[in-house]
Each structure stands twice: as structure tokens, then as C-alpha cells.
Amino acid sequence: MHTYLIRLQGQVDVAELNAGSPHQMRPVTRGLDKARTASTALTIRTDQAGLIGLLRHLHQLGLTLLSIESLAETVPPSDERKSP
Questions:
Q1: For every residue of the chain, which 3-state class applies, written as one string?
Q2: How many CB atoms lie within 10 A of CB 45?
Q3: Which residues sit opposite 68 in a β-bridge?
Q4: Global pTM?
Q5: Which of 11, 16, 33, 83 is the least crowded, having the fewest Cβ atoms under 10 Å away?
Q6: CA distance 54 to 17
Q7: Per-residue pLDDT of the chain (84 residues; tens, 9 = 90+)
Q8: 10: left (phi over 0), alpha (psi -120 to 50) or beta
Q9: Can you tell me the distance from the alpha carbon of 51 to that of 56, in angstroms, rounded to the nearest whole number?
């Protein structure tokens, strides 16, 4: 599982996206510069199959994808986790 930052062109109603998607996306508002206010930034935590499904969903809605970025994970790989 990864957390992805997705940017879409224009202002998009995230509540509407979440209503039609099995994945819950969260809007990102902090750290955005004024040049990017004509876009919508969201985060989602999913695996690659879920990301592909989300991309298909966004395409069906006619939304323009500007970028996808995999955010750094804060959880160590499974071999570094301590066993209980």
C-alpha cells in the first residue's frame, strides 16, 4: 500500500468523487502555491490495482490528470518491523 498525491485540472468536488468511488480521497489544501489553485490535489492510500481502478474512474468522469506522485512511506518495510 502506498499513499499517492493526485492532481486534477480544475476545481473538483471531492465529495462527489468519493460518492462514486470505493476509495476515499482526501483533498490537500496546505502547501499549495497560487499557481496551482486552478487544480485539485487529493491523496489516497491504496495498492497499484486500486490506483489503476481510480484512474479509470477519473477517466470515465472526463477529468484531466495533471500528475501522480507516490509519497514517502513512514512505515518501515515488513522485514524491519519488530515482532510482538
A1: CEEEEEEEECCCCHHHHHHCCCCCCEECCCCCCHHHCCEEEEEEEECHHHHHHHHHHHHHCCCCEEEEEECCCCCCCHHHCCCC
A2: 14
A3: 6
A4: 0.72
A5: 83
A6: 10
A7: 899 999 999 888 888 888 888 778 888 876 555 555 678 899 999 999 999 999 998 999 899 999 999 997 655 555 544 545
A8: left
A9: 9
